[in-house]
Design goal:
heterotetramer; A alpha+beta (about 290); B alpha+beta (about 775); C alpha+beta (about 160); D alpha+beta (about 200); A: alpha+beta; Uridine Diphospho-n-acetylenolpyruvylglucosamine Reductase, domain 3; four-stranded antiparallel sheet; D: about 200 residues; alpha+beta; seven-stranded antiparallel sheet; 4 helices; about 40% strand
């Protein structure tokens, strides 16, 4: 299991990177390498050129400004986990990150890599979906912004041209005191989840004033449950409400594969939506 | 007298090197001029090879050769040697070293590329053009015997490898007059080896002496040597097989594989050493697994839960070839009655071909299959009659007073299966106490108040260990008093060297550090068998004891002469032989050794034989039977189907323990392997015979996070069959584990009246059972 | 022609300058080029953890990192843990608690735990289990490993 | 996996049959496929490109008309190919069955074309269970597109060759509606059939 031959490039700036990508015909970007390297070792992927962006330091940042949290694509998962900004502004991302792979993979893995690889079960794309995040992509012609709902074209296919580069992700910060949860079910710790659910709620006197819900792993891409979110608004944060939300979530489109059926993924969506909402409501300020 | 080593928690001598990165595994070898090999493997489960064009691959820079079947000469081009021939095998089909004109499973070796690096060898693989014509595969074992089933081998009349029957007692009359007859059908799945080190071969050929040296990550270097001697038509003395440090074996590395033929063959052909290291994907597709068995059983029971007779049939999927005879199918039946006194039994087994990777033993070697089946019968009787499962066991166990107890079956050594010693009742009680079985009902009820579903499961087993014929040990003492020990039995982490040191240190009164051990090298010990079936501790222990006794005898005889005293007055202590009556009168082992191995011109003392050395092939007089009872407590999350293991207790009896640290390590590792089988590990093939999960993201091995605390209590019932009272301990954890887990799940979900009819038990499967029975 | 680069890296305190083929991963470089065969390759797809080494003090799977990416980095492998023949507390605890059998996965567990215990000197059993959940051991059932890690942590705290 | 499609063309059966057995004409109807060489009357060499998530495959292989029955109006084409980078192969048997469709009356002769594709993948690409749903989804879209393009060719007045162009699995998926593929993946069953 050794990779096929390739030519290695290590640009040191975004400009250099974008220029390089415009020139190369069949290049793959190497960020953390935690998905690309296994695929290259197994020769599923055998690009002519590998472009290592670990030297592009301007792609690695976490900043909070104007009600948004902006994260550079090359920011490593371990840095997100350790970041006080993330803990404060988007605690649900921190919770989700605890499910991402293992100690060793989080030390290398990046948020941009996860968003570009787009495994349907992956936690970070689910968080991007939960927040309705905006992604910034750079090409030779300049930069463009892509809302998360347009980012996912299909199974593991992001809306990015071969010559483009993901620069950053920006997500709106919710009110301090909001409730959050990322709950998932995987066969073993650190495995690809079969299904995962992210939830955000704001409460006032025990009533849900705002909610966001995303289901990962059930369908080919993270699914934002906007209808359920709307019906949650104005409801009391109690078991009955969560049960109803779960029942609605169960209707989502889901896929079957060698391991599990669509019906089981839907059943999990039901269970996990209930659990995520309950945890989120528990954590929110403004509960009864 | 020093501290007694045997029975003590001696830290292993092997560990220093392994903990500092100085282990020597086969992939760590670097020989001058060494080339690297990669195999082209069949992408099809079943196909005819019409043509192979290797020209493009051969012309890739860095490639030295590309070999196919046509390049092989006689006798190497014959089918792989059958290590375990048996007249009961109706179709003894083994693999060709490289596929001749038909491939019968995904992964079968078709061509071998030798290149400067493994990278280049892999670059060349897609350049080999193979024209296949696909044939319909047989993939599902239960369809294998259908009249219209595709044949796994195109020229075979059917897919039957062998049909085995065992029977004793009055089966039909017992069923006819039974209080109750219950029936169950279920599927077992066993998964693969998954040693963290895959297989690997480094081969070197010396044209001057016409000798091969082969390093292989094998459990059985002597079996490899013997098979190769036939395959190459060479005397065994020209083939040296070395098992260096081996990164786990678990059964599948006990076989003989085509890479062990082709890699040395190519090394001879090219006059260069060649290394081939199995990568993980190859491990999934080519290393033998032990897989599906379908059981249909009926049990005749009294109203009090006594099992009087069992009858039924099973179908055992042997995969594409017969690499390991029918040892495994045989063991699957021979160990059937387990710890229970079952007076009548009739089982028929069809061993069938499918177009999947071949079958050979995995940890427990058929015993986990048999144990699960009989334990399922206990659960069935318990449930149907409403008698506690522990109580059903009590009512059926072989009694302490029954030993030696003959089950009525025949061991594959040809003798009556005889349990030598044990006390199954007290072992059960020990396990129940450790698990607080009596307090479980209260725990279960308490948890139910919070909507949590707890369950408990019990499982018992008996294991025939220490099988013959022998595992020899040579001990030689040098004039400095250092002890050199060699033995055939290779180690894959079981700590054989430490075990040998402990026994020999005690018998010769020397320190552990004075003993140097070599194992697993056919060049250093003439004849060995292999590390399988929980047999090595018993066999090397017995042989080491025998060889040490001979050394003692030799040394004492000479010492008595030199010290002018009676042999009876002498004792071994700290490397010295001391006269009990005159404590200052001593002679060291080294001095004795020097007298017996003098240099030129001197003479060996009259009446004594040269060299203070001894070789023993003493073995246990029969297979000692270890036993155990496991109790598993767990929780099922009915929202997801997740099974969370809470506590696992083992009561284990392997006779006298040489090293409790090693014994416990074997038990815990074995239990976890069994839990993996019950809950996680599943080798899935699609309908066209393509394996679906050939990576560790999808094939789920147990991880630390999912494993429960495993608590162990020992009982020591020494075996009367060997001088140290030893019984094997390598597989006793695995054998009963699956039923302990599965019975606990059924117990947790008893409100839903769930019966589990397959394993591994997946969360979705459980959810389906829960939903089907939720009213 | 193979794509190569010259790299300089420090392994276990010793500096090496080597010309490496860019497609060789770090594990291959350590084993093939530097003859440091203590780092074992178990799966080559980042799942088993056997090849874990420390890169600038952090546990990393060396099969998922190219050798060229180690240019300028400080690497610690299993060969760099002991002080001569003197096992460090973690290694000694592995031996004492029988935290290894075949020894093949052991280098990955030791390096992973070395980094983990540095950041988390007083972990619970559950935390230890989670820390090593990216490492597979087929022999031990993990119990000896977990016990060894807890014992080593206690000893290192006492120092 | 078995994939079935059907469509209606405004041509009599015999005329439709003529076109359907013209491999160079119909092969390009399968997105990403090109015929590179005619080896014999009924045998052709060609290439097919398809993208599965991050993996872009180029199959090189052969197609052969294995059966033409002008009375029963059936034809079978067997095709197989292997990825150039050794990641596996595909084997397909496509069976056409033509039936009169008299819905339009005698003045408007029409033919109902039933296309049955039996597709089997092998090698690495067939051995990643998590993507089994994706693969079946892409295969369904491909055969659907194939049928639609065939219908176009069959109705083209000049019977001119169709060029589906460089249609990748990606474009197909997008065409099918973002991520709205139905993943009907038959689960690989174990013996009990319980899943």
């Amino acid at each position: 299991m050794k990779p096929a031959p390739f030519k290695y490039h290590a640009p040191q700036s975004l400009t250099e990177l974008v220029d390089l990508m415009a020139e190369l015909e069949d290049a793959k970007i190497l960020a953390g390498g935690q998905s690309l390297m296994p695929m290259m070792n197994m020769r599923f992927v055998a690009p002519d050129d590998v472009v290592d962006i670990n030297g592009v330091s301007e792609l690695s940042f976490i900043e909070r400004a104007n009600g948004s949290l902006r994260i550079g694509a090359m920011t490593r998962q371990k840095d997100l986990l350790a970041s006080p900004e993330v803990k404060d502004a988007a605690p649900v991302m921190r919770e989700a990150l605890c499910h991402v792979g293992h100690l060793q993979t989080r030390n290398r893995g990046t948020i941009g890599g996860s968003l570009c690889h787009l495994d349907p079960s992956a936690e970070l794309p689910a968080i991007a979906s939960l927040y309705g995040a905006t992604l910034t992509v750079a090409g030779r012609e300049g930069q463009r912004e892509v809302p998360m709902e347009e980012w996912v074209l299909a199974y593991m296919m992001p809306s990015i041209a071969p010559e483009e580069v993901l620069v950053s992700l920006s997500l709106p910060v919710w009110l301090a005191g909001h409730g959050y949860a990322y709950t998932e079910f995987a066969r073993r710790h650190g495995d690809f989840a079969i299904t995962g659910v992210g939830a955000l709620v704001e409460l006032s006197e025990g009533v849900i004033t705002k909610a966001a819900l995303t289901v990962a792993g059930a369908d080919v891409k993270p699914t934002r449950l906007t209808d359920v979110e709307q019906s949650l608004a104005g409801q009391p944060a109690n078991e009955e409400t969560f049960k109803a939300a779960g029942a609605e979530a169960r209707k989502i489109d889901a896929m079957s594969d060698t391991y599990v059926s669509a019906a089981y993924r839907q059943r999990l969506a039901d269970t996990l939506v209930q659990r995520a909402l309950a945890t989120a409501a528990d954590r929110a300020v403004g509960g009864e | 007298m020093g501290v007694r080593q045997t029975g003590a928690e001696v830290q292993r001598g092997e560990d220093q090197a392994l903990l500092t990165g100085r282990g020597q595994y086969v992939d760590d070898l670097k020989l001058l001029g060494m080339l690297h090999g990669a195999y082209l493997r069949s992408p099809h489960a079943h196909a005819v090879i019409k043509s192979i064009d290797t020209s493009a691959a051969e012309s890739l820079p860095g490639v030295h050769a590309v070999f196919t079947y046509r390049d092989l000469e006689e006798p190497v081009n014959g089918r792989q040697v059958q290590p375990y021939p048996n007249p009961l095998i109706a179709q003894d089909i083994t693999q060709y070293p490289l596929a001749k004109d038909e491939v019968c499973y995904v992964g079968e070796a078709v061509a071998f590329v030798v290149a400067d690096t493994r990278h280049i060898a892999e670059d060349a693989l897609p350049l080999i053009q193979v024209d296949y014509e696909t044939l319909p595969p047989i993939v599902r074992l239960r369809e294998a015997m259908d009249d219209d089933a595709p044949r796994a081998h195109k020229d075979s009349p059917d897919n039957l490898i062998a049909q085995l029957n065992i029977t004793y007692g009055d089966v039909e009359p017992t069923f006819a007059k039974a209080d109750h007859v219950f029936k169950a059908e279920f599927l077992q799945h066993r998964g693969g080896c998954h040693a963290m080190e895959g297989r690997g071969v480094v081969a070197q050929y010396d044209a001057f002496s016409d000798e091969f040296t082969i390093w292989s990550a094998t459990q059985c270097p002597y079996l490899v040597r013997r098979c190769l001697a036939t395959q190459f038509d060479l005397p065994e003395s020209r083939i040296r097989v070395i098992a260096p440090d081996v990164g786990g074996g678990f059964g599948p590395k006990a076989g003989f594989y085509v890479e062990e033929i082709i890699t040395p063959w190519a090394a001879r052909k090219l006059g260069r050493p060649i290394k081939w290291i199995e990568d993980r994907k190859e491990h999934f597709t080519t290393t033998n697994t032990q897989r599906d068995t379908w059981w249909e059983l009926e049990v005749a029971a009294t109203s009090k839960g006594r099992i009087e007779a069992i009858r039924g049939r099973l179908v055992n999927d042997n995969g594409a070839y017969v690499p390991y005879g029918i040892l495994l199918p045989f063991t699957m039946m021979a160990s059937f009655p387990g710890p229970y006194k079952i007076l009548a039994l009739d089982l028929t087994q069809d061993v069938v071909f499918t177009n999947t990777v071949s079958n050979s033993p995995v940890r427990g070697a058929g015993r986990p299959n048999a144990a699960y089946a009989i334990e399922r019968m206990i659960e069935l009787v318990s449930r149907k009659l409403g008698i506690d499962t522990a109580e059903v066991r009590r009512r059926n166990f072989v009694e302490k007073t029954d030993f030696p107890y003959q089950t009525g079956l025949i061991h594959f050594n040809g003798r009556a299966m005889t349990y030598d010693s044990g006390d199954y009742h007290s072992l059960l009680e020990k396990a129940l106490e450790l698990a607080d079985y009596d307090g479980f009902t209260a725990r279960q009820e308490e948890a139910r108040k919070d909507g949590r579903y707890l369950g408990i499961g019990v499982s018992s087993c008996v294991e025939d260990t220490g099988m013959g014929p022998y595992e020899g040990v040579t001990i030689r003492v040098d004039p400095k008093g250092k002890i050199y020990v060699s033995s055939g039995a290779a180690s894959q982490g079981q700590g054989h060297k430490t075990v040998l040191r402990q026994i020999i240190a005690d018998e010769l009164g020397v320190g552990l550090d004075d003993i140097h051990v070599d194992i697993g090298d056919t060049g250093k010990f003439p004849q060995g068998v292999g590390t399988i079936g929980s047999r090595v501790g018993v066999n090397i222990g017995t042989a080491a004891f025998g060889a040490a006794a001979e050394i003692r005898e030799k040394a004492l005889a000479l010492a008595a002469e030199i010290l002018e005293t009676d042999i009876g007055n002498l004792v071994f202590e700290d490397g010295l032989i001391r006269d009990k009556g005159r404590s200052n009168i001593t002679i060291s082992l080294g001095e004795i050794a020097l007298k017996l191995a003098p240099m030129a011109g001197a003479v060996v003392p009259a009446g004594h034989t040269a060299s203070l050395e001894a070789t023993s092939f003493d073995a246990s007089k029969g297979p000692p039977h270890a036993s155990g009872t496991n109790v598993c407590e767990l929780e099922v999350d009915i929202g997801t189907g997740e099974v969370k293991l809470l506590n696992y207790c083992v009561a284990h009896d392997c006779g006298k323990k040489i090293n409790p640290l090693i014994v416990e390590g074997q038990i815990v590792g074995g239990v976890v392997h069994g839990i993996g089988n019950a809950l996680f590990e599943e080798m899935i093939y699609d309908d066209s015979g393509q394996p679906q999960n050939v990576n560790y993201g999808e094939y789920l091995l147990p991880l630390a996070t999912e494993m429960p605390p495993i608590n162990i209590v020992h009982q020591e019932t020494p075996s009367p069959l060997n001088p140290l009272g030893l019984k094997g301990a390598g597989e006793g954890g695995t054998i009963p584990a699956a039923n302990a887990v599965i019975a606990a799940i059924e117990n947790a979900l008893r409100d839903f009246d769930v019966t589990i009819d397959r394993y591994p038990v997946t969360p979705e499967y459980l959810c389906n059972l829960i939903d089907a029975n939720q009213t | 022609m193979a794509d190569t680069r010259e790299i300089t890296l420090t392994v276990n305190g010793k500096s090496y300058t080597e010309t490496v083929e860019t497609r060789f991963n770090l594990a291959d470089i350590l084993r093939e080029k530097l003859n440091l065969t203590g780092t074992h390759v178990g799966c080559e797809h980042g799942a088993c953890g056997a090849c874990t080494v420390l890169v600038d003090g952090e546990a990393v799977r060396s099969c998922l990192m190219l050798g060229v990416q180690a240019n300028g980095k400080e690497i610690t492998t299993i060969e760099g843990l002991a002080d001569g023949d003197q096992l460090n507390p973690l290694q000694a605890a592995f031996r004492k608690h029988h935290g290894l059998q075949c020894g093949f996965c052991t280098p990955g567990f030791l390096t992973t735990l070395t980094a983990y215990l540095q950041d988390n000197p007083d972990p619970s059993e559950e935390e230890i289990r989670e820390a090593v959940s990216g490492n597979i051991c087929r022999c031990t059932g993990y119990q000896g490993i977990v016990a060894a890690a807890l014992d080593a942590a206690a000893q290192m705290r006492a120092r | 996996m078995i994939l079935t499609n059907e469509f209606l063309v405004a041509l009599p059966k015999d005329a439709a049959m003529q076109v359907l057995t013209d491999v160079p004409l119909i092969a390009p109807c399968l997105p990403g496929v090109s015929v590179t060489e005619a080896e014999a009357d009924t045998k052709y060499a060609g290439e097919a490109t398809v993208r599965l998530g991050p993996v872009k495959l180029t199959f090189s292989g052969r197609a052969e008309i294995t059966e033409i029955d002008h009375t029963a109006h059936t034809a079978s084409v067997r095709a197989n190919g292997a990825d150039k980078k050794g990641r596996g192969g595909a084997e397909a048997t496509v069976t056409f069955q033509l039936k009169d469709d008299d819905a339009g009356g005698e003045d408007a002769p029409a033919t109902r074309v039933l296309v049955r594709t039996d597709l089997a993948l092998n090698g690495s690409i067939a051995q990643y269970g998590r993507a089994s749903g994706l693969i079946e989804g892409v295969a369904q879209e491909l055969t659907k597109e194939f049928a639609a393009n065939l219908a176009t060719v069959l109705t083209a007045e000049d019977g001119s060759a169709f060029d589906a162009g460089e249609i990748s699995g990606l474009k197909l998926l997008v065409k099918a509606g973002i991520g709205r593929l139905k993943f009907g993946g038959d689960k690989a069953k174990n013996e009990t059939g319980a899943v």
